[in-house]
Amino acid sequence: PQTFSQGSIRWIVMSTSKNIIAFNSVASAPANDTHAEPLLAVHEPPALHIKSASTGNEYFIGDYVGEGAFGVVYACSDIWENNLVIKFLKEVEGLRVNCHDAALKETESLMVARHQFIVPVHDAFEIDGQYAIVSERCSQTLSDFTCTPYFNPNPWVRALARCVLQAVNFTHLQGMAHCDIHEGNVFAHFIPDEIMPEQYSAFVFKLGDFGLARPISSVTCETTFLKNIRPPEIIDTRTYGPIDHRVDLYQVGLLLLRFLLPSCPPFSQEDILSGRPQDLALEQNEPLFDAIAQMLRRHVIHRTPNAITAWHNIQIALIETSEPSQPPLTQ
C-alpha cells in the first residue's frame, strides 16, 4: 500500500483498477458500500471546523460514518444544528473525466431537483483541493432497517412503495434515471419535532445516492449497474429492450420483492435472464406480489410502464388483500 496526502486528507491506497467517472451523492453511506473498491482512508476528519465558500455555512465534523468508491463520509452539523453528513471526494490517478466539472454538474442538478422523498444535497464546495458534498443524514438504510429480529415487512410495505415510487416518478419527470435502486440506497428516516428534538414527528423512506444517475436517453448497455440488480434489457438489449426509464421500475420491483421476502438471496444475472424474480413473485399467489411481478417482467414492452401505474396497481392489490373473503352464499 501507498500513503499520500491530498489537501488535508491522508489516504492509504491498496490497489484498484476502477476509474472514477462520477461521484455519489451521500446519505448515511454504510461502510459496506456496494460500489466500494479496496480503498482505505485514514479515519481522521480533515478538519473539525469547515466553512463553505459556496453558501457561507459552517460545518462541524463528527465521527467517521463510512467509505465508498467515491469518497469518505463523516457525520457533521452546521450553524443551523442540522443533522448532516459530509463526503470528501476521492481523486484517483487515471480519472477519465474532470472531477471538478463532474462534481459541479451533479450537485447543481441535485440541489435544484428537490423532492420530499429524495435525500437532499445541502451544499457542495472545494476546500484545500478537496471537493465536499453535504447532504441530510438519514436514520438508517433500508438494509439495516430490515435486519431487526422478527422484522415484519407487512405494515411498512405500503409506505415504502409510496415513497420510493414518488421519488422515482419525480426523477423520471426530470428526464433522469436513477439506475442504482437497492436496499443500500433507500433510507428509513425519522423526522424530529422542532419543539422537542428528542421526539420524532414523522417517519418516511427516501431515495438517495444519485451517483450513477444519468439522463434517460443516455442509459445504455454500457451503463454501470450492480450485477444483482441489472435489468434484463441491460444484459441482453436485443432480446429484452428497449432501454429506457423502466430500468428503475425493474429495480423497484426487486427492492419490494426482497423487502417482503427477506430470506430471498440476491439474484444472479442468470436468474434475471431466466425470469426467476418474476416467477418467485407469482409463486406467492397474492395480489401484491402480482403487482410486483408486473414490474419484474423481462421484456420491457410488457413491464409496468411508469411509476404512477406501479403505485396504482399496488394500491388496488393492497385493497384486495385487506378485504375479508366472502363466505359462499347458501341457498
- Poorly predicted parts: 1-42, 92-97, 325-331
Classification by helices and strands: alpha+beta
Q: How much is the average pLDDT?
A: 79
- The global form is globular
Distance between the termini: 82 Å
Question: How would you describe this structure to a colleague?
Answer:
With 331 residues, the protein is of the alpha+beta class. It is built from ten helices and 14 strands. It has a six-stranded antiparallel beta sheet, covered by helices on one side. The chain has a three-stranded antiparallel beta sheet with strand order 1-2-3, with no helix packed on it. A three-stranded antiparallel beta sheet has the order 10-12-13. The longest helix is centred in the middle third of the chain and has 17 residues, at 157-173. It is globular. The model is unreliable at 1-42, 92-97 and 325-331 (pLDDT under 50).
What characteristics describe this protein?
331 residues, alpha+beta, 6-stranded antiparallel β-sheet, 3-stranded antiparallel β-sheet, 14 strands, disordered C terminus
Question: Topology of this protein?
Answer:
Blueprint: E1 2-6, E2 9-13, E3 39-41, E4 49-51, E5 58-68, E6 71-78, E7 83-89, H1 99-112, E8 121-127, E9 130-136, E10 140-141, H2 142-145, H3 157-173, E11 176-177, E12 186-192, E13 200-207, E14 214-215, H4 232-235, H5 237-240, H6 246-260, H7 269-274, H8 276-283, H9 287-295, H10 307-322
Antiparallel strand pairs: 1-2, 2-3, 4-5, 5-6, 6-7, 7-9, 8-9, 10-12, 11-14, 12-13
Helix pairs in contact: 3-6, 3-10, 6-9, 8-9, 9-10
Briefly summarize what is shown.
29% of the residues lie in helices and 23% in strands. It has 331 residues and is an alpha+beta fold.
